[in-house]
């Protein structure tokens, strides 16, 4: 069983400490909750940076009135395809930080990346989002029947990636070979009692706000349905799961719970805790911790392809 029970770094870098200090100073946490209550998040995806358009092959298609981007190296054949599930509490769309993180992946790993602008809550529910993703994924595997597929998601996108992998397994649809999760939201009910122990350390996420967002996202489905909260599902027969989490985010409670479940079920996985890191830090590309993750991904995916 492949796993890492210790932090890859002994302490967070100075930039991370400064970012978290500023988050507390400017009251990001109550601001995030207010945005959920008022549905105040940006619903339009951020514009793709010019540097990506200039350096890589970029195309966009429309499905059900929403965009799907395909990005790949210009002069190189790729055998691996990343289906990227962006985060944002199921309420917010793709941000410029997501695009910069995607650019880092393209710069260091020879892959094609598919980025769907999937429907968002509260206007859409999990049922609508899954319907959109099933149609997209079915076409994707039809277009690339021999390609190695990787699911990758941050925050709520990580939850969606893991829930979707379980759904397609049950339906006999091709499973991704890798499921790579960054700060994943695994349980929208926020019922893990260990959340209280780390709540004060998290300068971004509000338990109350997330409960509301989770209920809106669930819609007619129960908040403990595996498609809504994948921690309540079955992890056997899935692609290999890799989890990256920071010790200063409330999602670490369920990440550790998932690690324990995978260990008990003797399922092979990778698990990395980064000491003192905040929620979704991996998409802040200037951080040394993010660069560490990119280096690991580059080596890991290269080795898995050989």
Question: Structural class of the secondary structure composition?
Answer: alpha/beta
CATH hierarchy, class = Alpha Beta
The CATH homologous superfamily name equals: Alpha/Beta hydrolase fold, catalytic domain
Largest sheet: 8 strands, mixed
Number of helices: 10
Provide the domain count.
1
- Which range does the strand content fall in? 15-25%
Low-confidence stretches: none
- Order of SSEs: HHHEEEHEHEHEHHEHEH
How does the SSE layout of this entry go?
Layout: H1 14-25, H2 28-37, H3 50-55, E1 56-63, E2 66-73, E3 80-85, H4 96-108, E4 112-116, H5 126-143, E5 148-154, H6 156-170, E6 178-182, H7 195-198, H8 207-218, E7 240-246, H9 252-264, E8 269-274, H10 288-305
Parallel strand pairs: 3-4, 3-5, 5-6, 6-7, 7-8
Antiparallel strand pairs: 1-2, 2-4
Helix pairs in contact: 2-8
Structure description:
The chain is of the alpha/beta class. The chain has one domain (14-305): Rossmann fold (3-Layer(aba) Sandwich), CATH 3.40.50. Helix content is 40%, strand content 17%. It has an eight-stranded mixed β-sheet, with helices on both faces. Helix 9 links the parallel strand 7 and strand 8. The chain is globular. The two termini are 20 Å apart.
């Amino acid at each position: 069983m492949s796993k890492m029970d210790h932090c890859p770094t002994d302490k967070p870098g100075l930039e991370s400490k400064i970012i978290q200090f500023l988050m507390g100073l400017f009251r990001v946490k109550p601001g995030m909750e207010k945005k959920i209550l008022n549905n105040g998040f940006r619903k339009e995806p951020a514009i793709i940076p010019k540097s990506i358009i200039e350096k890589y092959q970029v195309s966009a298609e429309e499905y059900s009135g929403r965009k799907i981007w395909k990005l790949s190296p210009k002069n190189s054949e790729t055998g691996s395809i990343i289906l990227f599930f962006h985060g944002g509490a199921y309420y917010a769309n793709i941000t410029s930080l997501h695009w910069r993180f995607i650019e880092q992946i393209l710069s260091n790993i020879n892959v094609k990346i598919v980025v769907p602008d999937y429907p968002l809550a509260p206007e859409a529910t999990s049922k609508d989002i899954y319907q959109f993703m099933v149609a997209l994924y079915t076409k994707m595997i039809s277009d690339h029947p021999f390609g190695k597929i990787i699911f990758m998601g941050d925050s709520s996108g990580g939850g969606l990636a893991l829930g979707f992998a379980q759904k397609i397994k049950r339906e006999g649809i091709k499973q991704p070979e890798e499921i790579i999760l960054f700060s994943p939201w695994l349980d929208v009910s926020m019922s893990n009692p260990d959340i209280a122990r780390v709540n004060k350390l998290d300068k971004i996420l509000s338990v109350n706000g997330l409960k509301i967002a989770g209920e809106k996202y669930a819609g007619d489905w129960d908040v403990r349905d595996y498609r809504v909260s994948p921690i309540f599902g079955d992890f056997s027969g899935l692609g290999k799961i890799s989890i990256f989490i920071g010790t200063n985010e409330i999602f670490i409670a369920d990440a550790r719970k998932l690690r324990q479940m995978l260990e008990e079920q003797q399922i092979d996985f990778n698990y990395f805790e980064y000491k003192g890191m905040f929620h979704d830090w991996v998409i802040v590309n200037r951080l040394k911790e993010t660069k560490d993750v990119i280096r690991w991904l580059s080596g890991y995916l290269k080795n898995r392809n050989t």
